Amino acid sequence: MTARPPTSTEAPKQAEIPEIIVDPNTKRKYERGRFLGKGGFAKCYELKDMASQEITAGKIVPKSLLTKNHQKEKMSQEIRLHKGVSNPYLGKLYSYFEDSNFVYIILEICRKRSLMELHKRRKAITEPETR
Q: What's this model's pTM, rounded to 2 decimal places?
């Protein structure tokens, strides 16, 4: 009788988000900073533009989670939506790009956090606060 190799029930290991993120189109470099939060696919970090020292928010999505067509379409739709909207009350989309492991969306950082987080903390929001 031969021994069977052990089987692993662990999920495949995802690539690590790099400390220095480089936009392959503009060669702009960002230093990954403080973790801001996570959603269904993405993790969000403060990103510092290494040339201008400007702090932005980086939404980083592992390509390993975008395996199905509807997931890829949802990602594309989010980028198209951000590109098509210009409103002083919404965070700005600065750029987006990808490398072999991740899709990066560079956004204006919202220092006062999201309306959803405020609602979760306080349970009620006044109309002036929503503006």
A: 0.76
